[in-house]
Amino acid sequence: MPILEVRVVGELAPGRAPGLAQRIADAAAQVLGSPPRGTWVAVEMVAPDLYAENGGAEPGHPPVLVRVLLRGGPPQDRLAEEVAALTRAVAGCCGRPEENVHIVYEPAAAGRVAFGGRLVEP
């Protein structure tokens, strides 16, 4: 049940936007070991004037911000490897450098998130 909320700041290179959510879903499912229809991805494009960094953003490639929600939360025993693989996957799908992809893992979904009115059981 991984859910990824992806915010892409700025424009993508020509040809990258069509199918972006599907490419990220497929790549993330491989990284996260999710079965078919088990990884959900929503992509939001953020206009550059709706993004800021204190002191001003550096020119160049704007960021891709990713929030990840997993049933049991982040896998502490292999988190570094998972983050590296997911970063590579998202960067490749978006055509952005890995250093511009930033990932935030949410606390475990179990016991606090519901789908269709059903609480995800711990």
State the gist of this model:
The protein has 122 residues and is of the alpha/beta class.
What this model shows, in words?
This protein has one domain: Macrophage Migration Inhibitory Factor, CATH 3.30.429.10. The model has no long low-confidence stretch (mean pLDDT 94). The protein has two helices and six strands. The chain has helices spanning 20-32, 79-94, and strands at 3-9, 40-46, 64-69, 101-105, 114-115, 118-119. The longest helix is centred in the C-terminal third of the chain and has 16 residues, at 79-94. The protein is an alpha/beta fold and 122 residues long.
Q: Key terms for this structure?
A:
122 residues, alpha/beta, Macrophage Migration Inhibitory Factor, two-stranded antiparallel ribbon, globular
Q: What level of helicity do the residues show?
A: 10-25%
Which geometry do the CA atoms define? globular
Quaternary structure: single chain
The first-level CATH class name: Alpha Beta
Task: Classify the fold: give the CATH topology.
Answer: Macrophage Migration Inhibitory Factor
Question: What topology, given as strand order, has the largest sheet?
Answer: 2-1-3-4
- Identify low-pLDDT runs: none
Order of helices and strands: EHEEHEEE
- Tally of discrete structural domains: 1
Radius of gyration: 15 Å
Mean pLDDT: 94
Number of strands: 6
Structural class: alpha/beta
**Cα end-to-end separation:** 13 Å
Number of helices: 2
Taken as a percent bin, the fraction of beta residues is: 15-25%
